[in-house]
Amino acid sequence: SSFEYVKKFELDDTLLPNTWIVVRLDGKCFHKFADDHNFKKPNDLRALKLMNYAAFSVMRDFSDLLMGFGQSDEYSFVFKKDCNLYKRRAAKLLTTITSKFSTSYTYYWNKFLGDQQLLYPPSFDGRIVLYPNEDTLIDYMKWRQADVHINNLYNTTFWTLVQEGKLSPTQASFNCYVITLNKGHSFNFYILFQAEKRLCGTVSADKNEILFKEFNINYNNELEIFKRGTLLFRKNINIDESNKCSTVIVDVHDDMLKDSFWKDHKDLFTIKSKQHFIYNGPMTEIISAQLHGRKSVIPETT
Amino acid sequence: SSFEYVKKFELDDTLLPNTWIVVRLDGKCFHKFADDHNFKKPNDLRALKLMNYAAFSVMRDFSDLLMGFGQSDEYSFVFKKDCNLYKRRAAKLLTTITSKFSTSYTYYWNKFLGDQQLLYPPSFDGRIVLYPNEDTLIDYMKWRQADVHINNLYNTTFWTLVQEGKLSPTQASFNCYVITLNKGHSFNFYILFQAEKRLCGTVSADKNEILFKEFNINYNNELEIFKRGTLLFRKNINIDESNKCSTVIVDVHDDMLKDSFWKDHKDLFTIKSKQHFIYNGPMTEIISAQLHGRKSVIPETT
Amino acid sequence: SSFEYVKKFELDDTLLPNTWIVVRLDGKCFHKFADDHNFKKPNDLRALKLMNYAAFSVMRDFSDLLMGFGQSDEYSFVFKKDCNLYKRRAAKLLTTITSKFSTSYTYYWNKFLGDQQLLYPPSFDGRIVLYPNEDTLIDYMKWRQADVHINNLYNTTFWTLVQEGKLSPTQASFNCYVITLNKGHSFNFYILFQAEKRLCGTVSADKNEILFKEFNINYNNELEIFKRGTLLFRKNINIDESNKCSTVIVDVHDDMLKDSFWKDHKDLFTIKSKQHFIYNGPMTEIISAQLHGRKSVIPETT
Amino acid sequence: SSFEYVKKFELDDTLLPNTWIVVRLDGKCFHKFADDHNFKKPNDLRALKLMNYAAFSVMRDFSDLLMGFGQSDEYSFVFKKDCNLYKRRAAKLLTTITSKFSTSYTYYWNKFLGDQQLLYPPSFDGRIVLYPNEDTLIDYMKWRQADVHINNLYNTTFWTLVQEGKLSPTQASFNCYVITLNKGHSFNFYILFQAEKRLCGTVSADKNEILFKEFNINYNNELEIFKRGTLLFRKNINIDESNKCSTVIVDVHDDMLKDSFWKDHKDLFTIKSKQHFIYNGPMTEIISAQLHGRKSVIPETT
Ligand SMILES: Nc1nc2c(ncn2[C@H]2C[C@H](O)[C@@H](COP(=O)(O)OP(=O)(O)OP(=O)(O)O)O2)c(=O)[nH]1
Ligand SMILES: Nc1nc2c(ncn2[C@H]2C[C@H](O)[C@@H](COP(=O)(O)OP(=O)(O)OP(=O)(O)O)O2)c(=O)[nH]1
Ligand SMILES: Nc1nc2c(ncn2[C@H]2C[C@H](O)[C@@H](COP(=O)(O)OP(=O)(O)OP(=O)(O)O)O2)c(=O)[nH]1
Ligand SMILES: Nc1nc2c(ncn2[C@H]2C[C@H](O)[C@@H](COP(=O)(O)OP(=O)(O)OP(=O)(O)O)O2)c(=O)[nH]1
Ligand SMILES: O=P(O)(O)OP(=O)(O)OP(=O)(O)O
Ligand SMILES: O=P(O)(O)OP(=O)(O)OP(=O)(O)O
Ligand SMILES: O=P(O)(O)OP(=O)(O)OP(=O)(O)O
Ligand SMILES: O=P(O)(O)OP(=O)(O)OP(=O)(O)O
Ligand SMILES: [Mg+2]
Ligand SMILES: [Mg+2]
Ligand SMILES: [Mg+2]
Ligand SMILES: [Mg+2]
Ligand SMILES: [Mg+2]
Ligand SMILES: [Mg+2]
Ligand SMILES: [Mg+2]
Ligand SMILES: [Mg+2]
Ligand SMILES: [Mg+2]
Ligand SMILES: [Mg+2]
Ligand SMILES: [Mg+2]
Ligand SMILES: [Mg+2]
């Protein structure tokens, strides 16, 4: 039609070739969303598993994705550097990932949070960041994982102080500070305030000590998924005695801050050479979902 | 942490000020998705209503959106030109719209397609296009609506020919051409092929004539939503006898190709001055959803 | 060759269509350059004329340029909004303008500053700014011209105070503050400091008064080129008695802050319709340079 | 002023960090410019030296530049990958390089082409290309140098055939084809046409053979600057017997297509570690221009 000229206003947004493409998603107002849906504080295992499953649903669709890394309400996806999907058009890559993750989160809600009704459609923001080389890309992954640690240690100590702490306010202060938050939760702001004050200026060691000495909690024993987030990537897995291999997306909670991790996983940076890359960790929900239906599977106990 | 420097690789993507921002979404592989979910051909009213409701869910969240226009598996959203949401950061605007639309489509699926199970999470691509002035923006809207007309007239004639046409093949050709498509549908490719051949080179008038003469179908009587798509925008509505007004998002199927439409709707280009802008069309599902709960509502029959 | 793939790293930088393209150039370290080349303070007419001539040399080469506006060490060039030169590739437009202006400034140096040797190659930075509509474009032009006024009134008063003022320091302070600047100029910093102090917090009216009352200088009588900068654009000119017209680039010093200017010059926004657009201002160096050689010219005195 | 808001239309154009920035300049219409200024065909040594000197003038000003490579009417400049000049603003880097090169070319014209008047200001286009890693950057350099070889072998053979060849046309064809080009040169198009036909489909070996067998020209003996272009970079040089070192920009014509070159010059990718990087090539005009004035210089004959 004579209006077709308006298509010329769409400008080319091709990304620099030979460069790592990272897409990071983050839940919009998940502070409120978590409250509205009664997520356990500071970590709700069901919510984290849902995030992982949504990310797995993305990884399955986009074979150019090398890795996914998730924590809290965010997920990062890394495309291989010679990815040519959609001819590297930025908006196409960014939106199809964002959309698929978002609908998967909604679609699989009941699988993980069956008891809790989804009250409204959630949403995620997304962005693309380019990293020109492996060093900066690894630092990106370390940055996100360091973030898990910092936040989780703080949050764990904070909520332990609040929920199990001996910060009981006087009756007077109690009256002043109790406020009914949205969704009918009552919080004692005096306690929140005391917990915050207590942690102000503390370093990691201090928090570990509070947890251990006052609550007999060894932070090391917290779940790996809480302390380290979840890394998704492709590995081979033996599927029967005949030594046949099948490629699956695995979900692990390894320590990416150690350089040894990156030495051991050099293959991560390329999709092709997975031959020496045999998975022998635990059988997770995500892995078994993939093996289900394929020939025969090594039993979960292996 | 010492890895925080990687945040510097995130580059500024602020959009040109004082310029119309259009976000267009389009279903990914909806040819297959429609087949997989038994959408009626060529138009499935339930599917279109779901699209509209998802778009309405977006419009409700983003008060800077002036208009939405949808057809088939696509939706366009227009931000007012002085929109300063997210400081006009392109990725933020693009992804939050894409994400909200995508999750709403999934979330409201059962409301509109209750009989048909959603088999997997759908996804949508998205893009941002800037239009510097009203003329080009209007041409954009006309472009999308002209597209509805062209496609719908073609599709209506095509599927009428196929489904009700006298294109019955000989038994011989039938045997050659019948193919079982995915999802167990059998199609007679001979018939599809004949229908395509029949329409090749025809103009609008020809297709109208085929429909009318051969099938006694007056194309004009087709549903407006099929012929023109759906426009969403904000209008005022009288909510009771006291002449009080309430602003609602209305869903209409007006002819935007006529210049008179744009003269009558000059206010569309700005959110503020809606005073003279009273809605007196039919009460739709989307409108009543909004009035529900507000003081008192003029009955749907009005 | 097998290395040709590296060309793919050149990314598309097409500018939004139907949008005003402004290229602004600014002399790099012209504070020093002006000192090094003994420019008169605050305005050196020869230097401004050289800027104008270099800009004229650019306008002559790029027929899509509608206007140029210059002041101090900067020049802005405005492309017509439907310009399709180099298919609107940003770097091409930006660099060819920057380069041509830069070499013209160097090439024509002797024509205007013959007495003063050019000591080293100067340089200019450049940038592209898009304006989506006439209103913002006009505000851009007003912004640059308002800048001339503000700076020139300040500079004129400041240097009058310094050069002719009665700010004579005591002998003592004189000894302390006199410093030999680069290029052998001696300045009395005490005086500069006093002048600055004197002007601190003053408004336009104050500066006009200082000039008039203390130095008997009527700011209105200053050269238009100093007060308003120079606007270059195309007009028609009568070149002989036969009423024949010729299009020339004219250099004027009109007041663009008045809205009447923009009403009178609506044609400025388009190159085509120059028919009613007859120049009858003074014959300038730039205009006569263009008429030279064409048939016959109306004498300069007209 | 109230117009200052228009500055917000200037958008951020920061370049991706940790990435090689290449600026390539190319003479605008130098086919004509070379003709107009009687450049020797196919290579004019004076013109190439002027290009090199202009590039040297740029390198001297921008200490973040690691290399320059020039040939014909083009020059590429490579910034170190952690360059933070102008905070990596693309337009600033691009235009200041373009401008400085352009004015230097004009300014130093007489130094190299004193006999030939510069008839008008030349101009250069410029572009920025990013390379994410050393491999692609090296391939970029190889691409440009391979280009020199391909073009120069062709041009040398072509002009030898034309100027000294036995392609003498018959008198008849001569009359038909001779055309007076701009600047009064007469060319026999019949001869140009014959030379082109002769070279059509030939490979390097063929051209070498034509030169050698028919004109007794050993292509290997052509000037290195013609065959390989010029590379500029910083090296140390011994400036007197006391073994003191001085850093200078050197102009060499090395073979960058050999991988050994890049092994030997690993230091090229960083500005800092030049200690082992002693220059002991010939004393060139560019080098001696820099040493002039410094303490004492090893005589040019060394
Ligand atoms: N209770 C609970 N809350 C969680 C959990 N995971 C994430 N959240 C919530 C708490 C955090 O405030 C929030 C994530 O922080 P963000 O910085 O992304 O903030 P938020 O999403 O509220 O705002 P945003 O729209 O991203 O700027 O998500 C969880 O497992 N349990
Ligand atoms: N049966 C049926 N199909 C529909 C309806 N609305 C849209 N579709 C399908 C038919 C079209 O082939 C498709 C939209 O065309 P597109 O050009 O967007 O292609 P598609 O989404 O397959 O591929 P894409 O990923 O967008 O490139 O959606 C409907 O109401 N009924
Ligand atoms: N004496 C004298 N100086 C002038 C004249 N025109 C411009 N200049 C000088 C004085 C100003 O400091 C300078 C222009 O100011 P800018 O803000 O452009 O600063 P400058 O070029 O020094 O630095 P830049 O590289 O642009 O950031 O040029 C003139 O006519 N006479
Ligand atoms: N005679 C002569 N011509 C030269 C020499 N170096 C460069 N040229 C001319 C011949 C080439 O046609 C031209 C460079 O080719 P380009 O592809 O850059 O084309 P040109 O500059 O004409 O057009 P452009 O504006 O870059 O698209 O410069 C030289 O040393 N001697
Ligand atoms: O953690 P980020 O990058 O999302 O940081 P932020 O403070 O949320 O900033 P924004 O989302 O606005 O980029
Ligand atoms: O209708 P569009 O713009 O989506 O056109 P397309 O042919 O699908 O192209 P693309 O989605 O690749 O821009
Ligand atoms: O007047 P401008 O825009 O040049 O302002 P500036 O302060 O010189 O800033 P810039 O770094 O953009 O040249
Ligand atoms: O050699 P280049 O890159 O200049 O190639 P070109 O064919 O001149 O193309 P361009 O329009 O990019 O200058
Ligand atoms: Mg954020
Ligand atoms: Mg969040
Ligand atoms: Mg978050
Ligand atoms: Mg599409
Ligand atoms: Mg689609
Ligand atoms: Mg579509
Ligand atoms: Mg500046
Ligand atoms: Mg300046
Ligand atoms: Mg300036
Ligand atoms: Mg070119
Ligand atoms: Mg050229
Ligand atoms: Mg060239």
- Indicate the overall shape of chain A: globular
Query: What is the element string of chain A, with H for helices and E for strands?
Result: EHHEEHHEHHEEHHHEEHH
Count of the separate structural domains of chain A:
3
Beta-strand segment tally of chain A: 8
Largest interface: A-B, 48 and 48 residues
* CATH first level of the largest domain in chain A: Alpha Beta
Total DSSP helices of chain A: 11
Report mean pLDDT of chain A, rounded to a whole number.
86
Could you name the CATH homologous superfamily of the largest domain in chain A? Answer: tRNA(His) guanylyltransferase (Thg1)
What Rg of chain A is obtained from the alpha carbons, in whole angstroms?
22 Å
Small-molecule components bound: 2'-deoxyguanosine-5'-triphosphate, triphosphate, magnesium ion
Q: Looking at the chains present, what oligomeric state does this protein adopt?
A: homotetramer
CATH architecture of the largest domain in chain A: 2-Layer Sandwich
Kindly report the CATH topology of the largest domain in chain A: Alpha-Beta Plaits
Low-pLDDT sequence parts of chain A:
171-177, 296-302
CA-to-CA gap between the ends of chain A?
Answer: 63 Å
Largest sheet of chain A: 6 strands, antiparallel
Class from helix and strand fractions of chain A: alpha+beta
